[in-house]
Design goal:
The protein is an alpha/beta fold and 132 residues long. It is built from five helices and five strands; from the N terminus they run E-H-E-H-E-H-E-H-E-H. Strands 2-1-3-4-5 form a five-stranded parallel β-sheet, sandwiched between helices.
Length: 132
């Protein structure tokens, strides 16, 4: 069965490039460019995996979205990969030490932008394999 992935990123060009990579591996991919669009898409269909940007329209909106996802009983088990370019934007090395905290930032993986296609596909596959 084809796995469904939702990309939530306000940069449509970047989201489309990630979508192309994922579709080349035969995933079904949808894109939401805001939290409002993501909410509507998630109400209509639960994906098998979510790729979420940290920095969006309202600053670090991805952190707020990740918390909402894990509080929703329909979505709590959906793995989330958080993409970030925060190091490039701030100079702060956000991922050097694993910042995951189940209360503060409930995501399964972090990837720095720009991401190499093989790295992305390997992380996606590993997370999807865990949920099957």
């Amino acid at each position: 069965m084809e796995k469904k992935i939702l990309i939530i990123d306000d940069n449509l060009d970047y989201a489309d490039s990630i979508k192309i990579i994922l579709e080349s591996a035969k995933y079904k991919v949808d894109v939401a460019t805001s939290s409002d669009i993501a909410t509507k898409k998630l109400e209509a269909e639960v994906p098998d995996l979510i790729i979420l940007d940290i920095m969006m329209q309202k600053g670090a909106e991805g952190i707020i979205i990740s918390r909402k996802l894990k509080k929703d009983p329909r979505l709590t088990k959906v793995p989330v990969i958080m993409l970030t370019s925060i190091t490039k934007q701030t100079g702060f090395r956000f991922i050097e030490k694993d910042p995951r905290d189940k209360r503060f930032l409930p995501v399964e993986e972090f990837i720095e932008k720009p991401v190499l296609p093989d790295v992305l596909l390997n992380k996606v596959k590993a997370l999807l394999d865990k949920t099957t």
